[in-house]
Amino acid sequence: MPTVITSMHVRHDQVEAFENFQRQINALGVQQPGFCGREVVRPVEGLQEDWIIVFRFDTNDHLQHWLQLPERTRMLEEINPILVHPTTYKVVADEATDRKAATAVFSHRVLPGGDQAFLDWKRRIIEARASFPGFLGSEMFEPVTGVQEEWIDIVRFDSAKHLNAWLKSPQRHKLLDETDQFLLCLEAHPLATGLESWFQLSHKSGSAPAPIPRWKQASIVVMALFPTAVLAHFLVRILPESFNWPTQILLSNIFGVTALTWFIMPRVSKLMGFWTNPAQDQKGWRNNLIGICLVTVFLASVLGLVSWLLTE
What we know:
- The model is unreliable at 192-197 and 201-210 (pLDDT under 50).
- This protein is an alpha+beta fold.
- The protein is elongated and about 80 Å long.
- It has a four-stranded antiparallel beta sheet with strand order 2-3-1-4. Strands 6-7-5-8 form a four-stranded antiparallel beta sheet.
- Helix 7 crosses helix 8 and helix 7 (214-237) runs parallel beside helix 10.
- The chain has helices spanning 15-30, 60-67, 70-78, 115-130, 160-167, 170-176, 214-237, 245-271, 273-276, 285-311, and strands spanning 3-8, 35-41, 51-57, 88-92, 102-110, 135-141, 151-157, 183-191.
- The protein contains ten helices and eight strands.
């Protein structure tokens, strides 16, 4: 995968300024076409003095666009005074791939006082997964006080086969055995290639992607499922009488799942994104009320239309 690896030796008294730079350049990176992932490896005393920042893109053209972006160049120039040595780069070009990526999302809740142990463990698990075939990239988002208590880790592989190989690997399970000492809980949410577009995690300006509340997920699924089920019912009714009812149910389910996965849910999820993944300045009761009203009006309209058709 096309990648740029940046190495920066930051002055000890400028770490806070550098972390602020990281948030800004990450917010810029995720907005660029073809962005696939980013990792940051902190310095390790006695072993590594530099910060290592990795950006991955889906094609060489998108990587080149990122490298030549004027905003990126300006931001790098602005941090030169806080660096001990000039920034070094390594660019790794690759052929584009059309394989479907597979994603898993992990949430980690760290025990009080376990932050340093978790950060050390995080560095080691990033290094371990990066050595597995098909690894595309990962992003780790810190907790946000008052909003989200967990660390969110988004991991991408080029196929479900490669993702499962990592999830079931002895190396990963060995690392997971260590987490009892510093994690209160760890939850894994694999996202299959077709279904991950049902609800997409979004993050802007470097903020952590908050999980979509379950009641909103349920509302959106009902919003998409009801008209799909009605349409499937009408389609089944035109089948020949030789099709028994188990066959009719099977065909109805195949139609419904196919339509929802590849056509309906991705569009409904995007359309209702303002409600399921609102920006920070849009959160609140007004946003929730608008979303609830839209879902209610839509379902009532479909119900009324279907009832009218059945009476004709």
